[in-house]
Amino acid sequence: MSSFRTRVTLVLVLSMLFVMSLGNFLIYKFSLNAQFNQLRERLMVIASTASLIIDADSLLRIPLNRDGINSPQYKVIADKLNKIKQVNPSLKYIYTMTKTDKEGIWQFIVDPSPVSEEDIRRGATSYPGDKYDASRFPEMLKGFIGPAADKKVMVDEWGVTLSGYAPIRDKDDKPVAILGVDMSAEDVYRTQREVLARAISVLGIGVFTSIILGLLISSRITKRIGKLVEGTRRIAAEDFEYKIEVKGHDEISELASSFNRMAEILAESKKKLQDYFYRVVQSLVRILEAKDTYTRGHSERVAGYAQSIALSMGFSKEKSDLLKRAAELHDIGKLVTHENILNKKGKLTEEEWATIKKHPIIGEDVLRPVLMDEDVLAMVRSHHERYDGNGYPDGIKGDNINIFAQIISVADTYDAMTSPRPYRSALSKEEAIEELKRNCGTQFNTQIVKAFLKVLERG
Fold it and tell me: Which of 187, 207, 227 is the last residue of a domain?
């Protein structure tokens, strides 16, 4: 019996070690790939957003020689690039390039730091007109077509970096240059080391727990191990909310608790990455509001109103917080809208109004590559839909509209009415409330308006 128990214990220990190692390896690979892809997506978002604030006509007027750094256009664009770099401290370089007559050979236009002592030692400079062999980097070549990012860490004269690119387009939507952003490879490696350290820690816990379990074998062990294996698979499949339920007060139940804690740690890591993404996008919202002085702080106020309405309607704090985040992003699509339209004092033309009405779809398109939450995307896309079906962009009506998008619509309209605009002064609180009441059942969901009025009554 003792010999049999020993053999079974050894088999159990080896099996558990294999399962946990496999699960840990899958989780490690997933986490590593996910974090690397998020870095690439973040670089593409930054490059795409930054390219929208660069005036292509001014860029093309910069002389492509070393005296070009003294031109007014160079200084204006360099200042914008430096501000973007300040908002994103992880960026090592930010620059613009355009093509030359020679295939694969590009030339710099604006680089806020065209030379440093280290660059001189390497013989690398980036003054206007300085040539660069772009043929070595396939993703950079794609930058003239649309947003792109290196699929691995790359090496050139400026060092080892991970880069993102986006086209700079003229008024005719023709790409005339690219904007590139570089992140130091050390930042990438640091992230990978953190993932590896976490994986090793989890593996160490798993090995230790497996040995303990093997020493205390019981008749129920096979069934319990099956639950642990299922938990490993679910966690490897990114189901971090899954909980392993193993009753008892022995080492096997402790192992289950370790798995659950591991899932919580991974869920927390994912949440931190999402929080970081939201902070990046919030900086983009501030760039948007900097274009329109009349709406400065608008997104934050709408987010506060929307969260209060949701809590008043009985939604959970988790759902209300998600709504607040989405509301902060609801106008992100206006990043591509020209300042002349946003700040126009007179009546918009049909063409200008059509441009404005595109911003919910553009906002969804901007966020979709880096944000998989369909609820948030629906809130951004549908916040201008009307309860009677006469809204945009899809003309959906009633309860077919995402309930949180309906909440944002009420909060957005109230803040717009009580804020000054180029074409009118702000309405008083009382006047805005009357407008909300008057449009109940047509533009707005009546229940949401009632909840908002209670919020306003409480101050």
Answer: 187
